[in-house]
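Following up on my earlier thread - several people asked me to post the actual chain instead of describing it. Fair enough. Here it is, all 437 residues.
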Amino acid sequence: MKLRTCLLGAIFALASLPAQAELSIQITQGVDNPIPIAIVPFLNESGGVFSEDVSQIVTNDLEQVGEFRALSRSNMLSMPSEEQEVFYRDWRILAQDYLLIGKINQQPGSQLVQVQYEFFDINREIKLAGEILTGSVTQLRDIGHTISNTVFEQVTGLQGAFTSQILYIVSEGAGPDTTLFRLEKADYDGARAQTLLESGEPIMSPSWSPNGQDVAYVSFETDLPRIYIQNIATGQRRQITNYPNINSSPVWSPDGTKLAMVLSKDGSPDIYVQDLNTNQLTRITDHPAIDTEPSWTPDGRNIVFMSDRTGQPQIYQMALGASSYNVERLTYDCFQCAKAKFLPDGVNLVHVRRETRQSPTYQIAILNIETLRVITLTDTSLDESPSVAPNGSMIMYATKFNGRGVLDAVSIDGRVKFRLPSSQGDVREPSWSPFLN
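Reply from S.P.:
Thanks for posting it. Predicted structure:
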């Protein structure tokens, strides 16, 4: 999808399933010295009323990641909408490092809008970025997220992930002894939630395809766990497995051609890889212990997994095509380590960690496999299912708050945290999308 001076693609179209109650970000911890930025309300040149405030969307995006502090609109000395109206001295007086301005125009009788924005470095007195984005009035939120991506990348040097989305599972009581399960998709901040699948039987382990068009998951709709792939736009489904006993934990290879999964069809749970083009199934591990929770290294050459083959859950790595005896253990200094995923750098391993037998807490941590340094990022007690943002800057995970399952997120340095509480049901098993173009 191109967001550059062209009509935005309709990437949020789904089968006719209703939208659900949205999650809503609550910032729980930010950096000590956030970057000051002035985001001026965009001038509405057409005079109409829009359902979304683009400049407020950008403000929310940048503040929610904890790195920025937006100047209050009431403290602004002027409201420029184009470059010739910008006086750098005014913004230096207000101690602002950056300035974002813009304007929106909608032709009478048309659903198309043009959003022009310009982004300035106040201290260097230069314009860093500026363009015109065109889309329908229903896509103003997408345009706002796209502008946020540009601002974030210009300031931090890191590609923004504000146009990314998340998958998660919601379980909710629907009567005596009845629970409904929903697989939902939403913007990264929980907005525009939509149901992809609803069932009276458990749904588990959602996983995005690398192109962002499909999702793999486990459903118990036949009373037994089976792995499915579903196209997000059309809702079309394909059953991938129908083996006896355990069929779980599907995760896409980086090139999107394979699924790693856990099957127990040959005895104890082991890691398998299925080629999605040929349906060829390859057994990766062969051990009497439990091998589960696979993930891929960023280069797609290795599988990382959890095994209790030494008596307690630990993290291991194995090259595709290697002997089942050629396994590398990655964690040694924790009582239990699980749910491992590499950051995009292929060196830092996100995982769930229980430090000692006496400790009842499970926390999100990062292990550098070269230096063996461990950084514990969370201080809640029942943290699980970490999923990494496509730019590697944040980790979303499931935890408990006030007795209810919620999603939390933490930056990879532990300085920024936010929460996405739900007004309905328990939320768990987040999966952060790849970059969506």
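The chain is about 10% helix and 45% strand. That should answer part of your original question.
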